[in-house]
Amino acid sequence: MRPGLLALALALLPQLALAQSAIETCLAIGQPLTEAAPLARTAARLRANEPLRIVAIGSSSTRGLWQSDPALTYPGMLKSELELLKPGLQVAITNSGRNADTIPGNVARFERDVFAHRPDLVIWQIGTNDVTWLQSGDSLASRIVEGIRQLKARGADVVLMDQQYAPVILASNHSKMQASIAEAARQENVPLFSRFDLMRRAVEGGLPMTALTSWDGLHSSADGYACVGRALARAIVAAMPEPQNETAPAKRQRRK
Q1: With contact defined as beta carbons under 8 Å apart, do 129 and 59 qualify?
Q2: What single string gives the DSSP state of each residue in 189-217?
Q3: 165: domain range?
Q4: Is residue 243 part of a domain?
Q5: What whole-number distance in Å separates Cα of residue 242 and Cα of residue 51?
Q6: Domain-embedded: residue 129
Q7: Is residue 255 part of a domain?
Q8: Which long-range contacts (CB under 8 A, 24 or more apart) does 101-105 make?
Q9: Which of the ends of the chain has fewer CB neighbours closer than 10 A, N or C?
């Protein structure tokens, strides 16, 4: 290796180590899905090793603002981690995030941006723009429930994803929105993946806020997208039911 390249590599080592440490620290904390009805359609696809169609709908943190490579957004990382955890599984993922979108905006797009793709699983990320634009979580609770019911009526499994743990969110009245999202998940018996709790516990565990959040204080950093997508994949796989034995053990015959 040329001396100049060697010097550059040595200079970058601490940054590479920090990046690896941030992702691994976040993943080690992990975040399970809340208990709810099983993701039956997803489980059937994984059990049969059939292609799994996922639609991720939400706002700019689903689209992957500040991330130019679609594979490195949270939906892209979800796909790659699922395929890593389940060798041979084919995942087709549609990123239907839209910058600046809201809960009513998401619901209005369902027909074109969700149902048209015939998903087995829908990840619905909600609440960020609504609360930053001073919409009350109380006023939108019924819209969340309505949206879940529309998704379930088409036969798709549904996972809700809440707000990110970031300075802009923390400076808002985020708690009511968080409560409304959690209550809608409980009412409709669908799992919630709390990226808010995942990121919060990672920061409380020693990561700086800037490790998972970008310069704007709202959207994820590259490590933040990676952790959310990979942690969600692990949570989905962990929630799958244990495989049943193909044949039941033979009953002992009673002696005569």
Answers
A1: yes
A2: T--EE-HHHHHHHHHHTT--HHHHB-TTS
A3: 31-238
A4: no
A5: 20
A6: yes
A7: no
A8: 101/58, 101/59, 101/60, 101/129, 102/59, 102/129, 102/130, 102/133, 102/135, 103/127, 103/130, 103/140, 103/143, 103/144, 103/147, 104/140, 104/143
A9: C
Specify whether the CB–CB gap between 122 and 114 falls below 8 A: yes
Question: CB of 233 within 8 A of CB of 91?
Answer: no
Q: Rounded to an integer, what distance in angstroms lies between the CA atom of residue 211 and that of residue 220?
A: 9
Residue pair 150/113 in contact (Cβ under 8 Å)? The answer is: no
Distance between CA atoms of residues 147 and 153, nearest Å: 10
Per residue in 35-71, pLDDT (tens digit) is 999 999 999 999 998 999 999 999 999 999 999 999 9
Tokens of 79: 């796909």
Helix (H) or strand (E) holding 93: strand 91-97
On the CB side of 61, how many CA atoms lie within 13 Å of its CA? 31
3 domain-assigned: no
47: domain CATH number is 3.40.50.1110
Write out pLDDT tens, residues 122-169: 999 999 888 766 565 567 889 999 999 999 999 999 999 999 999 999
Q: Cα(164)–Cα(234) distance, rounded to whole angstroms?
A: 18
Q: Name the pTM for this structure.
A: 0.87
